[in-house]
Specification:
The chain is of the alpha/beta class and 763 residues long. Strands 18-17-16-19-20-25-24-23-21-22 form a 10-stranded mixed sheet. The protein has an 8-stranded mixed sheet with strand order 26-28-31-30-29-32-33-27, with no helix packed on it. Helix 7 packs parallel to helix 8.
Length: 763
């Protein structure tokens, strides 16, 4: 069908229709533009004048005849402008065309005309096919197969669909780098669009646009499976503190299940630790399941989420997801500052007193310039009150401020607190109290911008009444690991519903843009959605506000059983949440954290001093230990783009868990060490999203000036690729005023006018 349309279009317009999309329109008028424009205006006025005087004709007849006559005259004037089309076409055999074949395992799926995607691609792009013969006569072809990266091949027959990842951006970059210096006329990308790479697609497309290299994308496969259950997305923590529980949020796509439900299991090191049920959603085909991770021992654990497959599923590899979870032992030190003796100070510290992974150091003002210090390491820690130097303050991973006014701190200390969050990456939690937040005079201080709530100017609420509020988790709070009061999500909701009310004495401001409310409060006077617990990212770290002043009531309420541990559970999980993602001065990450054998892994290290000042002259090395016991020593090079950043790449060959022990040396004696892991397995990440991703392929084509084709229309790209501004081209001016289509349109309008006159008895 497409070829017939192209033939008809070429006959009507003298040139292939695709040339109009690639060309530049120009005019070469036979007379000055002013005269032709004046003639067009004169024709319009003449037709309006003559047809308005035909009083014997009905208004409809005058309008139709006038419009047809005017259109014919204006078409003649348009031809006098002599419009033209300037096109750029690739010079035959002087340009390179890159053809990239998807080599990932998703190409083995049999959903392309009763054969696998790979077989359909190899038929269409076989050397003997009409498409490849046409391309070969016009371009010098360079073929690549790609998964995590692109590798040159001689033909599509060398593609075996064995890759476990599809990194489209990196593959486009690899092909462009390989052909650097050659006249590259375009890139043909043949894929199902199941992109799960780590490279930036925006950067890859920007580089191609800068060189004016179009990408022609060819989509392979089916856009929608009629019967399939697949894990679309999993949000899970990468690190947890020992003794903490977490939550895994799983988006499951369900199709063809009917009204039945299937089980979903969470495994840790091959052992089932939690089970939930996946039920078909009421609307759409995507449902979210939340699974609780129980406390796990210290070490690195292999997590797996599995959902039972349906009968006759086309793809079952997308029913599983795996990652690594690091559980560290601590202890992490948290500084809790109170400006007055109050029960919250004692009950909070008591709640976490038996937690070996967290140490809460207490600093309470007992009188002017006199302090009670609890949990300090030695007699010198906090001897003069709140820390006055960055290295002393930055030694803590989190800060809790109780009912303490802004005047308690010096200006430098307030700025250090802001830097503690933004530069050090620490966590700050501000509790409600009569000398806290706006009532404590924090408006306008460096700390006011750090908090997730706006802080208005006010005075200490020394005598004002307290407002009773009933706390409820928001949708975000229901699944937040810090707010899980029971082993199951349902049990946690029920416990929140039964907790006694707390009180607030502060005017809690509005949420800032980007902040999240986890606990809302409803007061007795009808106010709702009071932001009791909210948090936000700020710089490298995070800040939170817990607006209630008396969470200890959850422990001492007359209706609370003696053995109830809700208060202890809440504060233990809250403090663990605060310290979970706080960075160390030396940190190493592996990207991606899960790969297949033969896929590269990038190690990135961030090195800083104890005051978290970036170090650019460190010596950073890493020892990579494979599952078989062999080791490899890597030297991480400093990145010129980012201060304190170092990177190196290694390629694992064996399946299993790789351990990376990294060292950073500064000067002679300063040494920092850290360990991370990489999971290597054969399970294809690309199969997790195995349906044809047409929108992504269209975006790649549109943003580079190319075009998208379904596989059965790929034959059209041979002609389209000829019209390009990249590589070695020849520019040609084509006249548009004498096309057959112009004559036909003029003839049709004149015949239509004559026919209308005959029909109405006017001729």
């Amino acid at each position: 069908m497409g070829s017939w349309l192209d033939t008809i279009g070429t006959w009507l317009f003298k040139y292939p229709p695709r040339a109009f999309a690639r060309g530049e329109f120009v005019v070469a008028p036979v007379l000055p533009v002013v005269l032709l424009s004046a003639a067009a205006i004169a024709f319009v006025l003449l037709v309006l004048f003559t047809h308005s005087r035909l009083r014997t004709l009905p208004l409809r007849d005058r309008a139709v005849l006038g419009a047809l006559r005017l259109a014919a005259l204006l078409l003649v004037v348009a031809c006098l402008f002599r419009p033209g089309l300037v096109t750029a076409a690739a010079v035959p055999q002087r340009n390179v065309l890159a053809v990239l074949y998807d080599d990932s395992r998703s190409m083995r799926i049999a959903d392309a005309d009763s054969s696998t995607r790979l077989a359909a691609v190899q038929r269409t792009f076989a050397d003997s096919s009409a498409l490849m013969r046409s391309l070969t006569t016009r371009f010098a072809l360079r073929r690549f197969r790609f998964a995590a990266g692109a590798t040159p091949v001689r033909s599509a027959g060398e593609v075996h669909a064995t890759g476990t990842r599809s990194d489209l951006a990196q593959s486009l970059q690899d092909a462009r780098d390989d052909l650097e210096g050659m006249p590259l006329a375009g890139v043909v990308l043949v894929s199902d669009g199941a992109d799960n790479g780590t490279a930036s697609m925006d950067d890859a497309l920007l580089a191609l646009r800068a060189r004016r290299v179009p990408v022609y994308t060819v989509g392979v496969g089916r856009e929608r499976f009629d019967r399939d259950i697949a894990i679309e997305r999993v949000q899970a923590p990468r690190r947890m503190l020992s003794g903490a529980a977490g939550v895994v949020e799983v988006d499951v796509r369900v199709r063809g299940l009917g009204r039945n439900a299937v089980p979903l299991t969470l495994e840790a090191d091959g052992r089932v630790v939690a089970t939930e049920t996946v039920a078909p959603p009421a609307r759409g085909d995507l449902t979210t399941v939340r699974v609780r991770i129980p406390p796990l021992p210290v070490g690195v654990h292999r997590l797996a989420v599995r959902v039972a497959p349906l009968s006759s599923e086309i793809v079952t590899q997308n029913n599983e997801w795996q990652t690594s979870l690091e559980v560290r032992g601590g202890p992490d030190r948290v500084l809790y500052v109170e400006g007055e003796p109050r029960p919250e100070f004692a009950f909070l510290r008591r709640a976490v007193n038996d937690d070996s992974a967290v140490v809460v150091v207490g600093l309470m003002r007992s009188a002017d310039k006199k302090y009670l210090r609890l949990g300090v390491r030695d007699s010198l820690e906090l001897l003069n009150g709140f820390p006055t130097t960055r290295d002393e303050l930055f030694a803590y991973r989190a800060i809790i401020l109780g009912s303490v006014e802004a005047a308690f701190f010096t200006g430098d200390q307030l700025r250090m607190l802001a830097d503690f969050v933004s530069v050090r990456g620490g966590a700050l939690l501000v509790l409600g109290g009569r000398a806290s937040l706006a009532e404590g005079g924090f408006a306008g201080t460096p700390l006011s911008d750090v908090l997730p709530l706006t802080v208005a100017r006010g005075e200490v609420n020394a005598e004002g009444p307290a407002t009773e509020v009933q706390l409820r988790p928001t949708r975000a709070g229901e699944v937040h690991p810090a707010l899980q009061l029971r082993e199951s999500l349902t049990g946690s909701r029920q416990r929140w519903d039964s907790l006694p009310s707390l009180t607030i004495v502060n005017r809690l401001g509005a949420l800032r843009a980007g902040a999240t409310m986890l606990l809302s409060g409803r007061s007795t006077d009808g106010r709702s959605d009071i932001p009791i617990l909210s948090w936000q990212r700020y710089g490298r770290g995070m800040s939170a506000v817990f607006g209630a002043q008396d969470s200890w009531l959850w422990r001492m309420d007359v209706n609370t059983p003696v053995e109830d541990r809700t208060h202890q559970t809440f504060w233990r999980q809250m403090i663990r949440w605060l310290v979970d993602d706080v960075p160390a001065p030396f940190a190493v990450t592996a990207t991606p954290a899960r790969v297949a054998p033969g896929e590269p892994v990038v190690l990135r290290a961030q090195v800083a001093t104890a005051e978290f000042l970036d170090i650019n002259d460190a010596t950073v090395s890493a020892t990579v230990m494979s599952p078989t016991g062999t080791s490899e020593l890597l030297s991480l090079e400093w990145s010129l783009r980012d201060d304190g950043s170092y990177s190196a790449t290694f390629t694992p060959r064996d399946t299993g868990r790789y351990t990376v022990d990294a060292l950073a040396r500064t000067g002679r004696d300063s040494v920092q060490a850290v360990t991370t892991t990489v999971l290597v397995d054969e399970r294809g990440a690309d199969v997790a999203q195995a349906e044809l991703r047409t929108p992504l392929l269209r975006r790649i084509a549109d943003e580079t000036g190319g075009r998208y084709y379904p596989l059965d229309e790929a034959a059209r790209l041979a002609d389209d690729a000829t019209f390009t501004n990249a590589g070695v081209t020849v520019r040609e001016a084509k006249d548009l005023w004498d096309m057959p289509a112009v004559f036909l349109v003029l003839a049709v309008m004149l015949i239509a006018e004559w026919s209308y006159r005959r029909w109405r008895g006017l001729a």
